[in-house]
Amino acid sequence: MPELTFLWLSTTDWDAPQFGSRQQLARRVKRLLHPAAHCQTPASQTSHLIANIRVDDLGDHEAEVHSTFALFESRLDSQRAFSGHCEHKLRRAESSWRIAAKTVKLVNSHAVFSNLTFLF
Asked: What is the pTM of this model?
């Protein structure tokens, strides 16, 4: 199977996203889960609300899923909220669907954030 590309967070210019390969994503997750990852000590508590799900059949074993989300993070003495739109491109692989690409567009992408140390 060819290497899949993931889009994990768009910048303030929605036409200039940041891309990462599966290996880069795996390294980021491994780093965040490492005991020395002080940016997540103690770990954030998060809650995700997914709504307005729409599935578009693209044929040839491909589909696009569009949704809106709200993500709430609580860590130490602070709480943050994020919301936006999410697009998943799915491909049929044997007997299951696999994520081929993911795009996250934050409603408040123009805002300044401290470190985002979790995955959307």
From this structure: 0.63
